[in-house]
Amino acid sequence: QTIKGPDRIFWEKAQAQHCIWYGECSNSTILPEKKYNCNYTGPPKPLPKDGQGLLQELCPGLVYGNQSVCCDTQQLKTLHSNIQLPLQYLSRCPACFFNFMTLFCELTCSPHQSQFLNATEFSSDPVDNRTNVVKLSYYISNMFANAMYNACKDVEAPSSNVKALSLLCGRDASQCNPTNWIQYMFDIKNGQVPFAIDPVFEDDPVSGMTPMGNHTFDCTEPLDDGSGPCSCQDCSKACGPKPVPPPTPPPWTILGLDAMNIIMWSSYMAFLFVFITALLGAWCCRKRTITSEYGPIQDSNQPHSLNDSVKLSSQVTCCESLRENFANALHYVFSLWGSFCVRQPLLVIMLSMVLVAACSTGLMHMRVTTNPVDLWSAPHSEARQEKDYFDQHFGPFFRTEQLIITTPWTEWFKLVSTTGPDILFAPILNISLLQQVLDLQTDIENLEAEYKGQKVTLKDICVSPLAPYNNNCTILSVLNYFQNSHEVLNHTFADEFFIYADYHTHFLYCVSSPVALDDMGHFHDPCMGTFGGPVFPWLVLGGYEGTAYNNATALVITFPVNNYLNDTDKLGKVLAWEKEFISFMKNYSNPNLTISFSSERSIEDEIDRESNSDVGTIIISYVIMFVYVSMALGNIHSFRRLLVDSKISLGIAGILIVLSSVACSLGIYSYAGVPLTLIVIEVIPFLVLAVGVDNIFIMVQAVQRDERMQHEELHQQIGRVLGDVAPSMLLSSISETVAFFLGSLSHMPAVKTFSFFAALAILIDFLLQISCFVSLLGLDMKRQERNRLDILCCIKLPEGQQEKTEGLLFRFFKKVFAPFVLKEWVRPLVVALFVGMLSFSIAVTDKVEIGLDQRLSMPDDSYVLDYFGNLTEYLHTGPPVYFVVREGHDYRTSYGQNQVCGGVGCNNDSLVQQVYTASLMSDYSKISTTPSSWLDDYFDWVKPQSTCCRYYNATGAFCNASVVDPSCVRCRPMTPSGKQRPNGTEFMKFLPMFLSDNPNIKCGKGGHAAYSTAVVLKDNNTNVGATYFMSYHTILKTSSDFIDAIKIARELAYNISVSMGLENKTHFVFPYSVFYVFYEQYLSIAHDTALNLSMCLVAIFVVTTVLLGFELWSAVLVSLTIAMIVVNMFGVMWLWGISLNAISLVNLVMSCGISVEFCSHIVRAFSISTKSTRVERAEEALAHMGSSVFSGIMLTKFGGILILALSKSQIFQVFYFRMYLAIVLLGATHGLIFLPVLLSYAGPSVNKAKVMTTRSRFSGTERERLLND
User: Fold this and answer.
1) DSSP readout, 1104-1151?
2) Where, if anywhere, are coiled coils annotated (predicted)?
3) Sign of the dihedral through C-alpha 1067, 1072, 1078, 1079
4) Contact 484/491 with Cβ under 8 angstroms?
C-alpha cells in the first residue's frame, strides 16, 4: 500500500527520528569495565533533566526542541569519560574538537541514527532480558572525514613536542590519514571501544543508508559560540605561506673565481711590477751618477768620509742627538749594573735566590682549573651569566651517561605481517641482541660505587620525574618500550600459521605512539617508560632514514643523572658512580655488540689523563733543549781545552733561571688566587725558554767575541758588553711583556690567563738574566781564565796559550749566509718570495675554520673518540634548547599570556609561535621541534570540560582525575566565563595543582613530569617567576653547526623579546643549551683575534719606538715584519687544517712575542751600526746577531718541537707541534732573511751622532782601525 499526502510526510519524519539504541545494558566481553548499549529501534526520547547540562556541554548541536535524543544520561556520562584524552589534546583547536565531537555525538545520541548507523550483531542480556548491540556499521561521508582530519592534523601536543594525532591515531602523525584515524578510534583493539564499530566511508547513499555528513568547521574559521579560529601552531593554513629562511649569502667572486684570490693575485702582480720598475730605475740612475747613502732605495758602494767630524757635526739632527743620548744613557746604566753584578756575585745571586724562593712558595696555593666551563667561558660572558641564571632557577642541567650500541651482525630479518607486506628489521633489533642489551642495561642499573663508606647506586642519583610517587629511574632506551623486562620482551601470541603479536608488533606500535598506555595487542602492554614518561624513538634509535625506525642500525641508551650546583657531597656520589660506570664499560666485552660510551665526567677525565700521559713527551722535549743549550753555549777552541771552554754549568744555570722565572710567575699569581690552566702549564715554559735562551746566547756570545781593552778588568768588560746588548734584550723583553699584558684584556679566559702569566714570567726572566745570570757569567769567565774545568771547577789545567777563534755558526753567518742573502740579485728574489707568501696568506685568512673539533681534545687512544664518531653518525636529534623568560613577566593577565602562549587567541608573534615558525625551517634555524609549552597545557588542563582540574569541596586540596570521589568538584564552572582562560588570582590558584599532577590515563596533561622544573613559583605561590619553554636543536655535527645554532637562537630570542616589548627590561627572553658556554667564544673570536693581535702589534711598536730612542721608522719595520709573520701563520693554519679557537689564538699571541726575538735584535743591531751603507749595516747586523738568534731560538726549539709530534694528544700534534714549528720557521725566515733584506732597501739612515760617539769612544784604540776598514 502506498502512503500519500500528510501521512507520507509523517512517516518519513518518523523514519528520520529512528534510533538503533538507547541506554546501557550488560558489561562488554571485550572490556568488562565498560558496557554495551541496549538495542532500541523506537523514536528518540526526551533527555532527563539531569543529563541536559551534559548534552549542552558535549553536544550543543543536539540541543533543540524537547531535546529528544537516542541516548540517556548514563550514555552521556560514558561519552564524557571516553573523550577526556582527546579533549585534552584537541580542544586547543576549537574547530578540530567541534568536528571530532560531532562524530561521536552523532554516533551516541543523534535522533536520526538510523540514517547512518546499522546494527549488525546483537547479544542477549539475560539479567534484564534486553538485547545488546555488539557490532554496528557507521556510514560517514568522505567529505566529513577529510574535513575533520584536515582541521586536526596540525594540532600540537606541547608537552611531548609531537602532533596530537601521534597520540590519538595509533601511529605517527605522518602516517595518519582520515580513514585510518577513524578506524583506529573505532577498533576494538585500542582498549577504549567496548563493541565493534565498522566505519564505512561513502559520499552517496548506499544500501539504504545516508552517510553522516554534518557541517564542519575549517581550522581557520571561528565557531558559532564565539570561539576563535585555531592558532598557526595548530593550523598551518592559518599561518599563511611557509616561512622561507633568508638566502645564504653567495660567495664573493670575481669572474666566477674567489674574490680574495683574484684581488691578492692582482695586488701581488702590481707590486712586482712597481718593485721591478723601481729596481731598474735605480740601476739606470746609478749608472749615471753615484747616489749617497741617504738615497731612498739604493745604497752606494762608495762610503762617506765618516771621519770628518766637523762635517758630521754640522749634519747631526736634533732627533739623532736625542736617540744617541738615550742610547748612551741605557749603555751607561747597564754597564754600571753589569760591573756591579760581576763584582758582587754572591750578593746578587743570594738576593735572586731569595726572591725566587719567596715567589715560588706561592705554588703551595696553586690551583689548576680543568673545568671546561672555566677554561672556555669568561665569568661575565653572556653565556656564562645565562648558564648561572638557569642553574640557580631551574637547577643545573642533568648529567648524561650514554651508550651507542651497534652489532657486527649483518643479517636482516623479516616480520611476516598478517595485514600487509612483510617488514624488514635491522640486525640490532634481533630479539637475541635485545636480550643481551637488556642484560647489560640491568647490570648498569645494579652497579654499586662507594663514596665515603656509603654504597651508591643508580637509584640514588638518577632523574626520577614522578618521585616520590614513582621512583623508577629515567632510562631512555628502546627496552623501556618493554618495561625493561625480559618477560614483556618475550611476549608472543601466535598459532601454527601466524605470529599475531610479539616484540616486533609492540615495537612498531610504540615508535608510532610512544605515549600509549596500551598497544591494543593481545597482552595490552604499555609503551610509556617505567619512569612515567614517553620514550621517543629519535632519542633511542639511530642510523635510520625518515621514520623507518625498524631500519635502525644503532641503539642509544641514555641514563640522565642529577647534577648538583653547590652540594659537593651529592656531586661526589655522582662522580663516584660515574667512575664505576666507566670502569665497568671499559671491561665489558660482548662479541655480538659494539659499544661506544661516554659519561659526563669522561671529557674532563680524558683531558687529565692526556695531560699526565704527555708529561713524558714534554720532559723529553725540554731535556733535548736543555742539553743543546748546555752544549752550544761553549766556544771550544781546541780539544785540550774542551772542558775549560765548555759552558755546561752556565747553560744549566741559565735554564734554571728561565724555569725560576716561570715558577715565580705561577707563584705570584697563585698568591693572588688566580687559577692556572693546562694551556699556561704547557705553553709558557716553551715561550719563556724561547725568549730567555735567546738572551742567554746573545749575552754569552757577545762576551766570547769581545776583545778586552787595555787596562780593562773583567767586570768592566762584561759591564761594557752588557751595556751593548742589554738594551736589545730590554727592547725585546719589554715589548713582549707589554704586548702580553695588553693581551690579558681579552674576554677569553684561556687567552687572558696565558697573557697574565706569560707577561710576568718574561719580565722576571729579564730581571734575573741581567742580574743573577750576569753574576754567574762573571764567575764562569773567571773559571775559564783560570783554566779550571767546567762543572769540576776544582780541577785546574796547566797554563797554556789561549786562542780566541770565532765560532763555526758565527763564521757561517759572517762569511757565507749574510753576504749571500744580501747579494744584489738575491735580495729582489727574497722580497718577491716573502711578499708572495704574504699575499697568499691574506687571501686564505678568511677561509680558516673557526671552532674546535671536540675529538681533537682527546688522546689518540681515548674511548671517547669512538663515542664522538658514533654520535655524529647515528644520533637523530640535537641537544635540548630552552627559551627562558626571566622573572618579571606577568602571566596572570590575558595580555601577558597572549605574548607567550601558542593556542587560540595567542599573538601571532608570541614566544611559542615564533619558536614554532623557526622549527619549520630547521635547516636554517637549527631548531627541530615545536616548543613544549607549560602555559598551553595548563589552559587545556584547567578547562571545565576536562576532568583534570578538580579539588575536594571540603578542603580545597587537589583531587587527581583518577580519584573516584563525589566530593571532588571541577575547578571551574561550565559557564561562558568558566570556559575562558583563568586570570589573576584564579590563574595562580590552580597552577600549583597542575605542576603537581602526575599524568594518567584519565588526564594526560598533568604537568608534574614535564613542567615541574620549568616554572618557578614565588611569593608563596601567588606569582610566577622565571620559566622556560623547551625545544630541541637539530643534529649538530661540526663546529660551524654549533656556532650557527647559538647565533640564530639568540637572534630568535631577541626578536621574541622585542615582540613582547622586553628588549629594554630586565625580564627579557634568552636561549640556553648546555653547549652555549663553550661555543659562545666563536661568535666573536674573529673580532677578539684581530683586537688581541692588534694590541700586541701596537704595544711592540710603541715600546720599540721608545727603546730605540724614538726611531719611528725602525719600529714600523719591526711591526711590519711581525705582522707578516702573524698573517703567514694564518696561511699555515689554512694549509695544515688548524682551526681558529682559544688554543690557536694563544699561540698566535705567543707568535707575536717570539717574533719580537727574531726581529728586534736585528733591527737594533742595524740601527747602531756605523757602516756606511744600508747593505753593509744589514750584513753586519745579520752576521753578529743572526747567529745568536738562530742558535738561541731556532736550534733550541727545533729539537724540542719535533718530539711533540710523538705525543698521543691530538691537541699537541695539531696546535702545539704544527703551530710551534710554523712559529719558529716563519720567525727565523722573516727575521734572518726577509728583515735584513728589507733593512738593506728601506732601513733608517745611519745615526751620525752615533758615528761621532763611536769614533770618539774608540779613538786611539785598535777598534778605530776596524771601524775605518
Assistant:
1) HHHHTTS-HHHHHHHHHHHHHHHHHHHHHHHHTTPPBSHHHHHHHHHH
2) 430-457
3) negative
4) no
Helix axis angle, 1235-1242 to 1174-1189, nearest 10°:
160
Residue type, 99: N
Distance CA 483, CA 532 (A): 11
| Set of cell numbers at residue 1091 | 683586537
66-69 own/partner pairs: CB under 8 Å, 24+ apart = 68/17, 68/43, 68/44, 68/111, 69/44, 69/45, 69/109, 69/110, 69/111
The cell numbers describing 799, all together, are 797554563
Please give the Cα distance from 745 to 741 (Å, whole number).
Answer: 7
- pLDDT for the residue numbered 9: 42
Secondary structure, 3-state, 708-772: CCCCCCHHHHHHHHHHHHHHHHHHHHHHHHHHHHHHCCCCCHHHHHHHHHHHHHHHHHHHHHHHH
Tell me the one-letter amino acid at 774: V
Please report the pLDDT score of residue 163 as a whole number.
85
Count CB-CB contacts under 10 A for residue 1081. Answer: 27
Assigned C-alpha cell, 918? 623557526
Hey, what's the torsion of the CAs at 377, 382, 385, 388, to 10 degrees? -70
Neighbour-count burial of 717, counting CB atoms closer than 10 A to its CB (0-12 exposed, 13-18 middle, 19+ buried): buried
CA-to-CA distance for 581 and 585, rounded, in angstroms? 6
Closest to 219 (Cα-Cα) out of 207, 206, 234: 234
Of 391, 367, 375, 444, the C-alpha closest to 567 is: 391
pLDDT, position 1267 = 47
Nearest to 636 by CA among 784, 776, 779: 784
- Transcribe 19-76 into DSSP letters: -SEEEEEEEPSSSTTSEEEEE--S--EEPPHHHHHHHHHH-GGG--TT-EES--HHHH
HSE (CB half, 13 Å, CA atoms) of 742? Answer: 26
Quote the CA–CA distance of 175 and 171 in Å, as a whole number: 6
Give the whole-angstrom CA distance, residue 1269 versus residue 1262. 11
* Orientation of helix 1235-1242 relative to helix 1142-1168, angle to 10°: 50
**How far apart are alpha carbons 794 and 789 in whole angstroms?**
7
Contacts of 1174 (CB under 8 A, 6+ apart): 293, 299, 1239, 1240, 1241, 1243
**Contact (Cβ atoms closer than 8 angstroms) between residue 927 and residue 881:** yes
Q: Are 1089 and 1140 in contact (CB under 8 A)?
A: yes
Q: Is 452 left (phi over 0), alpha (psi -120 to 50) or beta?
A: left
The answer to whether 168 touches 514, Cβ cutoff 8 Å, is no
Q: What is the spatial distance between Cα 594 and Cα 1118, in angstroms, rounded to a whole number? A: 57
Cβ atoms of 1205 and 1217 within 8 Å: the answer is: yes
| CA separation for the pair 556, 327 (Å, rounded) | 71
- Cell of residue 1128, nine digits: 703567514
Burial label, 557 (beta-carbon count in 10 A; 0-12, 13-18, 19+)? buried
The pTM assigned to this predicted structure is 0.82
Cβ atoms of 916 and 925 within 8 Å: the answer is no
> What sign has the CA pseudo-torsion 27, 31, 33, 36?
negative
Q: Residue 1246 corresponds to which cell in the numbers above?
A: 745611519
Low-confidence ranges of the chain (pLDDT < 70): 1-17, 159-161, 287-316, 370, 418-420, 611-618, 621, 634-643, 678-679, 682, 686-687, 690, 797-807, 1192-1200, 1203-1204, 1206-1209, 1247-1269
> Any idea how long the chain is?
1269
As a whole number of angstroms, the distance between CA 95 and CA 185 comes to: 19
Q: What is the CA radius of gyration of the chain?
A: 42
d(CA 210, CA 1065): 61
Q: What is the pLDDT of residue 860?
A: 78
